[in-house]
Amino acid sequence: MKLYSRGFSLVEVLAAVAIIGIIVFLALPNVIQAKLDTEEQMVITRAEALNMSISAYITANGRSNAGAAWAHTNNSTHAAKYLLVKGYMAYAPSSLAATTTEPGYQPNGYTFEFGSLDQKVVVKRNTTAIPY
Questions:
Q1: How does strand 122-125 pair with strand 110-113?
Q2: pLDDT (tens digit, 9 = 90+) per residue, 46-81?
Q3: How far is C-alpha 4 from the geometric centre of its chain's CA atoms?
Q4: Cα(101)–Cα(68) distance, rounded to whole angstroms?
Q5: Where are the beta strands (DSSP E) in 1-132?
Q6: Running along the chain, 132 residues long, what does each successive block of 10 average in pLDDT?
Q7: Which pTM value belongs to this model?
Q8: 67-99 burial string, b = 16+ CB within 10 Å, else e?
Q9: How far apart are CA 27 and CA 49, in angstroms?
Q10: Bridge partners, residue 128, by sequence
């Protein structure tokens, strides 16, 4: 008489679940770090696009006209300076920060700070500047 085995025993299933749990436990920190690194690279790429759009803005309007308009918005928010240069970017949402209807150009948790026309855009995560 032959005994046929149909399926797995409880011990085999528990061993498989334990192995999968160990693999997930070991891999999860790497996945989280990769996501953070990718997000930071996206923010840096967007800051570089802002720097290039500032250069295009200066080229299109002339240094003196661009400088006068930039100085006029100097006491304004960074969003006002973004509005000056957003027309010179390929991807430019209508606002720098996210709204209820549209995602903003800067991701949550990051800020872009505009200085003078000769300075590159400063990227900050919370209060820490990110070098690029």
A1: antiparallel
A2: 999 999 999 999 999 999 999 999 988 866 789 899
A3: 57
A4: 33
A5: 110-113, 122-125, 128-129
A6: 76 96 94 91 94 95 92 82 92 85 85 90 92 90
A7: 0.75
A8: eeebeebeeeebbebbbbbbebbeebbebbbee
A9: 33
A10: 125
Amino acid identity of 117?
L
Q: Six-digit token pair at 7?
A: 């399926």
Let me know if 1 is exposed, middle or buried by CB neighbors in 10 A (0-12, 13-18, 19+). Answer: exposed
Strand order in the sheet with 128-129: 110-113, 122-125, 128-129
Backbone phi and psi for residue 125, each to the nearest 5 degrees, phi listed first: -110, 115
What is the rounded distance in angstroms from the CA atom of residue 104 to the CA atom of residue 110?
11
| Residue recorded with tokens 């990110």 | 130
